[in-house]
Amino acid sequence: MGYAEELITLEGEEPLASFGVITDVQYADIPDGVSFLGVPRYYRHSINVLQRAVKKWNKEKVDFVINFGDMVDGYCPKDQSLAAVKDIVNEFSLFNGPVYHLIGNHCLYNLPRDTLLPMLNIPPSDLHAYYDFSPVPEYRFVVLDGYDISGIGWPEDHPNAVKAVDFLLERNPNSDKNSPNGLLGRDRRFLMFNGAVGKEQLEWLDGVLQDATSLNQKVVICSHLPLDPNASSNEALLWNYNEVMDLIHRYDCVKVCLSGHDHKGGYSVDSHGVHHRILEAALECPPGTNAFGHIDLYPNGLLLSGTDRMETQEIVYSRC
């Protein structure tokens, strides 16, 4: 992809902090398979990618790690789901520092929220999975819950599940709500394996961005689901990405949106100068290859140092 070729170098500056990144491990103790697009998937090998990542992060002494979701695959036999999630959580626990988890659709195929979230040490808030943290005074990280409004992970009669089902019935005429057949352009995002940010979460996000602005902090948005159609395939977008970005664009503090879900990766800079970087999936690494990295945070940008399938990239902020 050559992301770094057009960007200004950050060499010579001292990073404020460093953190590890990985997404879409989607481990399962099953034979290799392919995606609906025919891309090979290496279910058993993906845990080896994570193990190598943790070893390297410890060697590099990064300050923390962010897992961008989908740690176990939906094809994992359901009688193995709990054990598989525990296996992945145990691998992350070998990192010498804090690990921040996002939830993805495959996580929720395996375990309900009330079981999953405590295992991931996600702060309890009525089973919502959005939160924020500040690793250094200059930065605020905001973790979104893209399956806040979703047909998966909630009990069928939960208001958020009911809203999601009604939402899809209005927008996707297919009996299989994971099928985009007949949907055009960005409407192809209206699929059951995606989701939306709800009203309460939007209000919370508004408050967090107000607070970050008052503290003169730069903000990194973390979302399993991508937020910009120029970085992502239409089928991978958050249902209400436009509503979320309309809110984000009201604030100059947001510099970067990081995400997973769209396994091939992607990059864009939107009309307001916000950078969008989709990270490449660990699941699709052939044996012996990797897709993880670490990011150095600087006052005016960040540097992603990737391995194999995860490309290295410099991002220099245009809104400073």
Automatic annotation (TrEMBL):
GO molecular function: 2',3'-cyclic-nucleotide 2'-phosphodiesterase activity; ADP-ribose diphosphatase activity; CDP-glycerol diphosphatase activity; manganese ion binding
The organism's place on the tree of life at top rank: Eukaryota
Pfam families membership: Metallophos (PF00149)
InterPro entries named among the record's database cross-references: Calcineurin-like_PHP, MPP_ADPRM
Keywords: Hydrolase, Metal-binding, Zinc
Domain Calcineurin-like phosphoesterase per the UniProt entry, residue ranges: 19-264
Protein name from the UniProt record: Calcineurin-like phosphoesterase domain-containing protein
Organism per entry: Salvia splendens
Biological classification of the source: Eukaryota, Viridiplantae, Streptophyta, Embryophyta, Tracheophyta
